[in-house]
Design goal:
Oligomer: single chain
Organism: Capnocytophaga felis
Number of strands: 4
Keywords: Membrane, Transmembrane, Transmembrane helix
InterPro entries: Beta-lactam_resp_regulator (IPR052173), Peptidase_M56 (IPR008756)
Pfam families: Peptidase_M56
Radius of gyration: 29 Å
Strand content: 5-15%
Distance between the termini: 36 Å
Protein name: Peptidase M56 domain-containing protein
Largest sheet: 4 strands, mixed
Shape: flat
Structural class: mainly alpha
């Protein structure tokens, strides 16, 4: 469990570094697909980099004498070895982690079951070559994998269908599914929720960018009506999430810049370098007495050999 906790801290470090770069430099850039790839890369690299530490070369040798190793060797010299049982504190960590992972795993299963129920009671139709699943009481149009779910009223609005088709073609739901699985394993990591929020934004911006040219003013008007809270031509749903509307309107007005704007993404290279160096520093090998003496778990005794100290120091001198 200790190894997993250390690994988790390392993944969070890499994720935080990429997320900070995104918030400072890329969040308002109109390269939505690149933003999506950058966010996903941050998560993937955070999972992979801790497995490939690079040992930093050093010319200095430092003998580190751990107190417990010294006592163990001293007691071994005098023949007074008392074994002690391992502490069970780490078992509580495992228990808490297991309960958390179980809860988030159950929540994920519940979501899949609900989605399957929606699929079973939906009416499947084909509109302009696109498979649509109609639901009478659905208030939020959404796409999962290759299926588009809308209400019957929304199915009559072509801009809703076109918007969801972008999500379908770009497989945006795979990103969110990946994050849901990540949240089961790393349920204690708050950074994953920020990544999910930014990915949803990137998905919506990309879908807006590809849908807008086909509808122009109608698309603008619909978003503005939702932002002002006035009656819109389309029903309110997640596709028109109020918190995203202003940013979506703003991002629609931005155009992709020259290659100079794309050069910002080269900042990912030093970010990777910093991650590797920091993780390598944390994995640098140390020369300790464990290479010379076996680790012996002992309890504190009163008859520790007083003559062991000179012998230990003589064996560890350089």
């Amino acid at each position: 469990m200790e190894t997993f906790l250390i690994y988790s801290v390392k993944t969070m470090f890499v994720q935080l570094l990429f997320l900070l770069l995104y918030e400072v430099f890329f969040k308002n850039e109109p390269y939505f697909r690149t933003n999506r790839l950058f966010l996903l890369s941050g998560i993937v690299f955070s999972l992979v980099l801790p497995f490939f530490p690079i040992a930093l070369a050093t010319d200095n040798f430092t003998a580190v004498i751990r107190l417990e190793e010294f006592i163990a060797y001293a007691d071994a010299s005098s023949g007074n070895i008392t074994k002690t049982s391992k502490t069970n504190v780490i078992n509580w960590y495992e228990l808490v982690y297991g309960i958390g992972a179980l809860c988030f795993g159950l929540l994920f299963i519940i979501k899949i079951i609900r989605l399957n129920r929606l699929l079973n009671r939906s009416q499947q139709v084909v509109l302009n070559g696109t498979r649509i699943f109609l639901l009478e009481d659905l208030t939020q149009a959404f796409t999962f994998m290759n299926n588009i779910y809308v209400s019957k009223e929304q199915a009559e609005e072509s801009c809703v269908i076109e918007h969801e088709k972008v999500h379908q073609k770009q497989w945006h739901s795979l990103d969110l599914l990946f994050l849901e699985l990540m949240k089961i394993v790393f349920w204690f990591n708050p950074l994953l929720y920020f990544y999910q929020k930014r990915l949803v934004e990137a998905h919506e911006f990309e879908a807006d960018r590809q849908t807008f040219p086909k509808f122009q003013n109608y698309y603008y008007q619909t978003l503005i009506n939702q932002a002002l809270g006035t009656k819109a031509d389309l029903p309110a749903n997640y596709w028109f999430a109020p918190k995203l509307i202003k940013r979506r309107l703003s991002m629609l007005q931005q155009k992709e810049k020259s290659t100079k704007g794309m050069s910002k993404y080269l900042l990912a290279i030093p970010a990777l370098a910093v991650s590797v160096l920091m993780l390598s520093a944390g994995n640098a090998p140390q020369n300790t007495l464990s290479e010379t003496f076996p680790k012996i778990s002992v309890s504190k005794t009163n008859n520790t050999s007083q003559n062991a100290l000179p012998e230990v120091l003589s064996k560890t001198s350089v």
